[in-house]
Amino acid sequence: MRLLYVLLLGVVQGLAEFLPISSSGHLVFLQHVFGLQYPGITLEIALHVGTLAAVIAVYWRDLLKIIATLLRVVWASLRRETSVRKWFYEPRFYLGFSILLGSVITALVVLLTEDLVLAAYENIAVVGAAWLVTSLALWSTRGSNPSARFPSLGATILIGLMQAAAVLPGISRSGATITAGIHCGLSRREAARFSFLLSVPAIIGATLVDFRRAHWLLYDPGTMLTVAVGTAAAAVTGYAALRILLRVVARGRLHRFSGYLWLAGAAALLVNWLL
């Protein structure tokens, strides 16, 4: 039963993490309605690793090129062979710089609002309101078809802030960041690509924070099996969900998720009123 629960949790996490419906919002809703408990630290690690694996499986070529370019620039700068400023005209370096900048902005905002976020997880009304906000954001992309390939400095800052806002249960990380990218002029494909590349440092950071608190648990054979099952379930379903979402975004149909979120938000507010 324990492994079946972990398998189910991994499937739900993999789907909700990438589809613009907020995995954390669903967890809070299910906890209040059905008494479902949050996963322990080891399960959180497994789910983080699984979703990270899904992103890497889709974007590994982009990630390798960006990392190689950043390392080459750092090495050349240390040897005083070039100026970092000149590299801003190189697309891969600029994209890597944008990802780092957006990640720093996300981390700072999350650290400054940690207490507020923790309180939000105790209030299902916050989830309902956040789902409605996400629904409106997704609907606003209807008919939008910009064409920029790379985010401007302002767009990077805004997308980083939207990723930080997604720590609130009910705000979808993928939905918020892709919507922000589209409204800042990025093409639909590039908005999605930047959104998921930006998620890599965030997922790694969350995994390291959890691992620091629970690394000793991983030596237990039973725990290792739990981690393996959760990771595999989140990775496989996450990969499928990510591929589906990329096709949906490319076809300009991101707004179709808004109907589901509107119903979910209304249901959460109704449950909060009844309880």
Number of structural domains: 1
- Beta content comes to under 5%
Task: Indicate the overall shape.
Answer: globular
Total helix count? Answer: 11
Instruction: Encode the helix/strand succession as letters.
Output: HHHHHHHHHHH
Can you put this structure into words, describing what you see?
The model has no long low-confidence stretch (mean pLDDT 86). The chain has one domain. It is mainly α. It has 11 helices and no strands. It is globular, with a radius of gyration of 19 Å.
Give a concise summary.
The protein has 275 residues and is mainly alpha-helical.
Features:
single chain, 275 residues, mainly alpha, 11 helices, globular
Write the layout of secondary structure elements.
Layout: H1 2-18, H2 23-34, H3 41-78, H4 91-112, H5 114-120, H6 124-139, H7 153-165, H8 173-183, H9 188-214, H10 221-250, H11 258-274
